[in-house]
Amino acid sequence: MDSFSLRCLIGVVLSLAIAARAHKRRSLDLSGAIAGFLVMSIHFAASYRYGAMLLAFFFSSSKLTKVGQEKKRSIDEDFKEGGQRNWIQVLANSGLAAILSIVTSAMTNGQDKCLDANESKVVTALVGGIIGHYACCNGDTWSSELGVLSNAQPRLITTLKPVKKGTNGGVTLQGLVAAAAAGFVIGITYVMVGLLTTKCDADVTWRQLLVVPLALAAGLCGSLIDSFLGATLQFSGYCSLRKKVVSRRLPTVTKISGIDILDNNAVNAVSVFLTTVLTSFACLHIF
């Protein structure tokens, strides 16, 4: 069995087990479990590193979602017990990376390649995009899940004025540090798994270590982009009836910030796309 076929087999078996477990533990609903199985299988078939980054994002985010649930219930208008995700949220957080994984694998005939612009600028840009994608997703999730638990009052990223917790675009120092840490986790996952599974020339291998600070920066940058979009293109208002910040205009809601153009899923998708593109360009200059 060649390496590509082996990755496909391992990907299918592992993805099925993880998706079933996530559905049982209510991290994913049925549609999310099916979508998760498909995108996870694609990631592992293309590269163990892509699959590992997806799992680092999924497991860490799922754990953090369950931290401080009582406090989050009082703040989040769309709070779900266990943070259960559906197929839309799964694809918003992994769909683009799955497409990039397929294209990269097709261009390399199923071979797992290191970041090396001297060998292929296109492949390097695509792999960099996958790294940026998960650094952004992880950064945004860690920032949201841990930032909301901060004792500090958030400030709107566009004006730095204090706002209520739960306001789209509100940031805290704790949330920003969490975003950077989340990007670091993605970077170190890529490097460590790559050292174990991917063979490259010695000088190319050592250069892969630069992925760690790059992913850290992408996690922070992605969170900042997400916050800026949330503060400007996503409506936030305080509902006097529910006593919490909401994202819908109602007679009982007083506007805090933003205009009603994007919802939360759209904000996430746009920020992921922009961070993916920026990281791709950065990789062309670094590697």
UniProtKB/TrEMBL annotation:
Protein name: Protein PGR
Keywords from the named record: Membrane, Transmembrane, Transmembrane helix
Membrane topology type: Multi-pass membrane protein
Locations listed in the record: Membrane
Segments passing through the bilayer: 32-59, 171-197, 209-233
Pfam families: DUF92
InterPro entries, alphabetized: DUF92_TMEM19
Entry-linked PANTHER family: PROTEIN PGR (PTHR13353:SF14), TRANSMEMBRANE PROTEIN 19 (PTHR13353)
GO CC annotation: membrane
Coiled-coil region: none
Keyword set includes Ribonucleoprotein: no
Major site of localization recorded for this protein: membrane
Organism, scientific name: Rhynchospora breviuscula
Keyword Transmembrane helix: yes
Similarity field: Belongs to the TMEM19 family.
